[in-house]
Predict the 3D structure of the following.
Amino acid sequence: MTAGRLLGAGVATGLAVVVTAIGSVFAAVALCLMIYDKADLIHLAERLTSAAVGRDVRIAGDADIDVGWVSRLHLSDVSVANAAWAKPADMVELASLDIALDVRSLLTGHLVFPAISLERPRLFLEKNADGAANWDVSRGAKAAAGAAAPEQRSEIPIVRALKVAGAQLRYRDATTDKSIALDLDNLTISEAPADRSVEIAAKGRYQSQPLRLTFKGGAWSRLRSSDEAYPVDVALVVGDLNAKIKGTLTDPVAMKDLDLSFDVKGDDLANLFPLLGIALPPSPPYAMAGHIDHQGTNWQFSSLAGRMGDSDLRGSAGINLGGERMKLTADITSERLALKDLAPVIGARAGGEKGQQADANAAGARTDGKILPNKEIDLSRLNAMDAEIAFVARQLDAPDLPVTGLDAKVSLEDGVLRIHPAVLDVAGGKVRTFLSLYGSRKPVEVDLDTALSQINLKALMHGHDFAEQSSGTLGGRVELHATGASVAALLGSASGHTFVVMSGGKISHLLVELAGLDIAESLGVLIEGDKAIPIRCLVADFTAQDGLFTTNTMLVDTTDTNIGGSGTIDMRNERLDLTLYPLSKDFSPLSIRAPITIDGAISSPTVFPDPAGIGVDTTIKKIINGILTPVLGLLPPIDAGVGENSDCAGLIKRAKSDL
């Protein structure tokens, strides 16, 4: 059950019990004080009230009443006992209570309170592990509370002036481990002298966040008129959440036939969870406006329009409070989505931020030289609600990345988050991802299945010197199972299989010759100009086990050179240990056909010729390689052969069969 539902259900019931208790105390004390001596018969009023409420009611302080057309009651140090199993000892505590009641309103049944004042009221509501609620009191009290609750506008009691100071509300549900904490320094209800409009103001803390509330509505007479819409204007600030609601209520009691517009903004969508129980991912600052409607247990938010970071958002959303868990549905579209605005979702830092959000994200940036985000995401929130979300980004703003669009379907049920699928438009092709994240498991488990299709090599290399002389179409597949609550933990534990293939296409001649260290030909290319050469086959096939990706096959087969490779990519420690073997198919007197090592941290790898095949993990080895390269590089490899045309179809078939 969400914070909003707790306030709307258990809290409302508890408040009804409190109202019943106060009404019973008022009636009992008034009767006793008018008939009996006050000093002797306060205890009689306590017994009468306790019988009505079904709990011990104590009046430890003063009790006084002034009877007239407007009768006034004063009580101090009043308490209502808690359930036997609950803590603290009292469910309700009240330092002092002053009520003024227009007695004539009793004759019409439309109560009018000229003034009510409460000092330090405290309400403690609780559900135990068996689901029992401490506000479950006697049937008579429940019936009285139900009868006192208005069913239509004309029955709403009028409170012309209300003052509450030092109020405290606590709610805890042991079945869900959810809690609510509300502290009000002051709460007032008053009537504006000019137009008699109702004004409410409150200041305090909600869920440990600063709270300020202002409300302005029509006059009480307009509220009770059933044929006229009631205007409201609300401003609420809780923590970084700033919300404004304005419009009319045709049926304020049932909250139906609403005509309300809203405008909200805040620093981070994830901050809504402790306030409203809505589990949304971390985000840059956001602002959203729209229209509110309500029917039964459904709240609808239509005509949504706003921004998140540098991205525009529009669409509709709904919240259903009728099930065991709240369910969020949403259909959101962005005409232009800045990819950096999605970075906080995976625990990364959103680029270009300013202010507090930038400082907060910078605090989570890695300082150990590694690049994978290691900020853990609070996935326990996935158990708080269900969801069905459709999201489309018609244009992606991603500098230096050839991504242009996104279409994602996301569902959340029983703590399992599924993406089914997310389709990313990349370099003229598609990257289609299916993901299942099991948030209830310890540790969290993830299944990932990503397919790459029709990726254009030229578009993929856009912005690089070799792009114009490169072409071809890439495809591939990634199937992984991992555990962890951050990107670094997931990749560091990943097991499965991944491959990328390309059959046919072209690549920069200069790039190939430099990779093969053919000094003579690459110098010639630099002088005469680059040209494209055909690629017969490209295969990169890895098996992953606990974050260690080991090559099965690594080959680039061009008409000039075969480049084979082997080694590992250690995602747990973010290190490379790869060796490339360029084998030229033609002869050049300056061809250095030596192994090339790529090692070190993924963030700053070292690439070095290694003709002796002894590795480059030390400075001495690098010096030896520096000496041996010009000598041994002139000799053919040990097998005394040159590269031969590869069986690309066979290699691709074998890579696919490993899935």
